[in-house]
Amino acid sequence: ARLNDKHAQYVLGWIYGVGRGVAPDKKESLKWYLESANLGHAVAQYQLSLKYSEGKGVPKDKKKALEWLERSAEKGYPKAMARLGNLNFEGIESIKQNYSAAHKWYSQLGAKAEPLILYRLGWMYEQGKGIAQSEQKAFQWYLRAAQHGVIEYQNLVASMYMDGKGTSRSI
Fold first, then answer.
1. Nearest to 52 by CA among 42, 40, 43, 64
2. Residues near 100 by beta carbon (within 8 Å), at least 6 away in sequence
3. How far is it, in rounded angstroms, from Cα 105 to Cα 129?
4. Cα–Cα distance between 71 and 53 in angstroms, integer?
5. Which residues have CB under 8 Å from 92's CB, separation 6+?
6. CB 152 within 8 A of CB 122
7. Which of 36, 113, 130, 132 is the most exposed place for a label (fewest CB within 10 A)?
8. Among residues 27, 41, 89, 95, which one has the least CA distance to residue 65?
9. Dihedral (Cα; 154, 86, 74, 8), 10-degree rounding
10. Helices 42-54 and 78-90: angle between axes, nearest 10 degrees
11. Residue 86 and residue 120: Cα distance in Å, rounded?
């Protein structure tokens, strides 16, 4: 960790944070997370975002929380991308609702997206929120959400098949 190994620094941050084999030490945990995050470790950046957002071991600071979250998302960390997409979709934590930004982060998740995010992408296409309206693309995203076994999304896809909405009518 002292040789600027960002992963080793992240692991030390986690070890001190949870107290694995050592007494929990929030200050030492923060030190190592910061070292790792400053070297570009996406998970450490995400953890710092959570710490600043919740005020855990640091003063609550929404601006710093968002900065670390954006840095992590830009590195491609799926949890950060999903959280940033959710914040923009819902318009919470001092972020104005922005469907275009939500779409950007959600669509980059691709196969890593959870069913709710796949559904939200479908909804944005269906409603034309932040992107051009497209029933066909809405159907494709809803179908991907339904394939995760969520009954509400499966029912939605079934009704789209029945109505021929975004796909060929099929009963």
1. 64
2. 130, 131
3. 14
4. 15
5. none
6. no
7. 132
8. 95
9. -90
10. 40
11. 9
pTM for the model stands at 0.83
Amino acid in the structure at residue 14? W
CA distance readout (Å), 88 to 66, 129, 130: 11, 12, 11
Other CB atoms within a 10 A radius of the CB of residue 121 amount to 26
Tens digit of each residue's pLDDT (9 = 90 or more) over 8-29: 999 999 999 888 899 999 899 9
Torsion (CA) 49, 52, 58, 61 in degrees, nearest 10: 140
Per the listing, tokens 């789209």 go with: 160
* 156, pLDDT greater than 70: yes
Letter for the amino acid at 22? Answer: V
Residue 1 pLDDT class (50, 70, 90 cuts)? low
What does 25-90 look like in DSSP terms, one character per residue? -HHHHHHHHHHHHHTT-HHHHHHHHHHHHHTSSS---HHHHHHHHHHHHHTT-HHHHHHHHHHHHH
Q: Which amino acid is at 154?
A: Q
